[in-house]
Amino acid sequence: MSHLPGTYGARGRVGAAGENYFARGLKRAGLTKFEVFYSLNIPDVPGKARMRGDIDCVIANGAKVVLIDVKRWAGSWLWTIPGTDKPLNGFLPYSKDGEWGLSKNMITALDRMRLRLPEADISAMVVFVPTKNHDPESVPRSVDFLIWPGMIRSYISGHAFGELNLRLGNEVVDVPPSALHLLTQLKRN
């Protein structure tokens, strides 16, 4: 399912374990009735640099597509200053790649997927899964206080499954062939 262990070693194994935990939760929640894709490349668009990151999971139902970034909760106290995309770790600025802010991979993936599938209703979310022995108590009760660039909301896995049902609907609808083709082409080997 995941390319992470071969690419990132021990950190990759931790990430892959989180993605596997999330995949099992999708199955328990009955969400695998929809089209589910794991570990997709961020789409290329003409005139833009190729992205190195990936999209951990994409779920499609009809014209609705949800991009999901799965994160293992590391126990930090991360939150975002209301009305901004400026994160803090406790009371100190949180930096990613030397810049004050969280990863911009998901907003980039969302923007590029919208360019490639303009007829689709595409949204994104970041989902936190337990780190410590897959114990659901090892994540906070809510991560509503952590907003990613592009106003992408965070969820803990238990809340994410309900949100996915709301976004995708209950009835299975065929995904347009053009969307299925693109999502299949983006799959990482």
Number of strand elements: 11
CATH topology: Trna Endonuclease, Chain: A, domain 1
Write down the secondary-structure element order: HEEEEEEEEHEEEHH
Number of helices: 4
Global outline: globular
What oligomeric arrangement do these chains adopt? Answer: single chain
Helical percent range? 25-40%
Structural class: alpha+beta
Number of structurally distinct domains: 1
- Unreliable stretches (pLDDT < 50, length at least 5) are none
Strand order of the largest sheet: 1-2-3-9-11-10
Radius of gyration over all CA atoms, rounded: 16 Å
Architecture, CATH level 2?
3-Layer(aba) Sandwich
Strand content: 25-35%
| Sheet having the most strands | 6 strands, mixed
Distance between the amino and carboxyl termini: 9 Å
Highest-level CATH class = Alpha Beta
Mean pLDDT: 84
Strand and helix layout:
Blueprint: H1 4-28, E1 35-41, E2 54-61, E3 64-72, E4 78-80, E5 87-89, E6 92-93, E7 95-96, E8 99-100, H2 105-116, E9 121-129, E10 147-148, E11 152-156, H3 157-168, H4 177-186
Parallel strand pairs: 3-9, 9-11
Antiparallel strand pairs: 1-2, 2-3, 4-5, 5-6, 7-8, 10-11
What key attributes describe this structure?
189 residues; alpha+beta; Trna Endonuclease, Chain: A, domain 1; 6-stranded mixed sheet; 3-stranded antiparallel sheet; 11 strands
Brief summary of the model shown:
The protein has 189 residues and is of the alpha+beta class. The protein has helices at residues 4-28, 105-116, 157-168, 177-186; strands at 35-41, 54-61, 64-72, 78-80, 87-89, 92-93, 95-96, 99-100, 121-129, 147-148, 152-156. 31% of the residues lie in helices and 28% in strands.
